[in-house]
């Protein structure tokens, strides 16, 4: 099941189209969700809630109508839900069999609340489903490749297998790139051996400046590939992919980012 969050913006429409194409490719069903939050003031909460919900439901109908008709059979449900976007995503992730959360990176979309909100670290660490963040410039699927930006640190075999699994779902080769600076420790030999065992392409890039800039320069050579990042238990990909860098990458890259 794929959960696609929308705020009805152009960016979220583009993300929904790519999410539905991915559902078609993987024979999955899609739940379209819009979250709204009514402010309670002077006892008018119920009437405002009803008005906002009705307006959002009309917007959802228009939103679905803009999606390709051939993709409509993959939409299991289009729902308007009261609540903050991150809370709604957390609830659905816990209660439904969600395999992927898809959001756009332009507009006042769910991804901004996920990455910029105060609860960002908690949300990303607790969300079990992968997140696919799609910029407006992203090409439609299938991508030409899946590039995993590895920080060189240890990873359990399950995470390594999940990266391979996603390459298989997309029908593309997984490639690993690592930015090595003078302060970087040696790459974990067990993880590196796994990549070699699976015959996964591995590229080490000498880093002289900002790691993000090195990643961006590398991605420019592969504009039709997706970038893969993994979550770390200590927060936003700490310490290598720290909070501020992830935010910059999310809102600047033209490549879709798969966060596992």
Q: Can you offer a commentary on this structure?
A:
It is a single chain. A ten-stranded mixed sheet has the order 3-2-1-4-5-10-9-6-7-8, sandwiched between helices. It is elongated and about 60 Å long. The longest helix is centred in the first third of the chain and has 21 residues. It is of the alpha/beta class. The chain has nine helices and ten strands. Helix 4 crosses helix 5. The two termini are 16 Å apart. Helices cover 40% and strands 20% of the residues.
SSE topology sketch:
Elements: E1 2-5, H1 10-26, E2 30-36, H2 45-65, E3 75-82, H3 85-95, E4 100-104, H4 110-116, H5 120-126, E5 131-134, E6 146-149, H6 157-170, E7 174-180, H7 189-197, E8 201-206, H8 211-219, E9 226-229, H9 243-252, E10 257-259
Parallel strand pairs: 1-2, 1-4, 2-3, 4-5, 6-7, 6-9, 7-8, 9-10
Antiparallel strand pairs: 5-10
Helix pairs in contact: 4-5
Quick overview of this protein structure:
The chain has 260 residues and is an alpha/beta fold.
Write down how many β-strands occur, each being a DSSP E stretch of 2 or more residues. 10
Order of helices and strands: EHEHEHEHHEEHEHEHEHE
Q: pLDDT average, as an integer?
A: 80
> Structural class from helices and strands?
alpha/beta
The helix content is 40-55%
What would CATH call the class of the largest domain?
Alpha Beta
CATH-assigned homologous superfamily of the largest domain = HUPs
Q: What's the CATH topology label of the largest domain? A: Rossmann fold
Largest sheet: 10 strands, mixed
Count of individual helical segments: 9
CATH architecture of the largest domain: 3-Layer(aba) Sandwich
| Domain module tally | 2
- Percentage of residues in DSSP E strands: 15-25%
Distance between the termini: 16 Å
Radius of gyration: 19 Å
- The gross shape turns out to be elongated
Low-confidence stretches: 116-120, 235-244
Sheet with the most strands: spatial strand order: 3-2-1-4-5-10-9-6-7-8
